Amino acid sequence: MQHIAFIKSLGFSERKKLNRCMVKRIGWILIFLIILVMAKAAFADDICSDRPGAGSSTCTVPYQHWQIETDIGNGTWSKIQGVRSANIIVIDPTIKYGILPYADIELTLTPYINNRTGSALSSGIGDAYLRSKWEFIHNDKFDMAVVGIVKAPIARNSIGNGVWESGIQIPTTYDIDKDWAIAHTSEIDLVKNNANNKTHVQIQESFAVSRDIPNTTITAQAGLASIVNYDQKTITQYSFNIATSWIQSHDTQWDMGFNFGLNKYAPGTQFYLGISKKF
Length: 279
Fold this sequence. Notes:
Number of strands: 15
Strand order of the largest sheet: 1-3-4-7-8-9-10-11-12-13-14-15
Structural class: mainly beta
CATH superfamily: monomeric porin ompg
CATH architecture: Beta Barrel
Number of domains: 1
Low-confidence stretches: 1-19, 33-44
Helix content: under 10%
Order of helices and strands: HEEEEEEEEEEEEEEE
CATH topology: Porin
Strand content: over 45%
Shape: globular
Largest sheet: 12 strands, antiparallel, barrel
């Protein structure tokens, strides 16, 4: 739901200052992650995260527990009509809290985005996303949830579009057996048009097959995703994704993955590395 515009390239002195700022940010991020991993957590069930992959999980954070899910690094590189672009996110934490045994509330913040297209550079804080998830079907084979989404436009105009936007997700999972599972997420968003202040519908779909590696706490998955924008003309993006996650303990999960654009409208290649921690 994020629309990115680009500003003119910064001068040498401004870039040097920006680089120093990035080094400081990365230092604080590393300190934050070390504290996060070393912290002792009171846990109820095994951790269950929306990471990795293109869709969302059906599970919610246990009642009266906190959970943080974040990228440690996230980069997307594309080349469209001969113009190269790179989008870098160092950290984008999602903070969750279990308000009921089957429901949680979530806040996603992105403190720093660096986006370059050709010689144009745009950087700054990203928009905030507020979510609430309710798991209303849960049994041994099939789970289903509903997620309400609101985007708060706190990013400056060079990063966001300055407009409140909203959407709804329906994630489902089906356990084939103890090792294999299928996940599907449908999302419908109401987002701002590119050319005016009116809105249009955006539909996102993701489908993934996952496999628990026997005698380990590692899961591998592969899937397909699509984004269809019904703006002045319909534009569809297709992508293929692979990912893996490792549950280090009851309260800590690490993950990494790749997304590959499959058509000319989709971003080229994305790599991410992240962590989820329950308290």
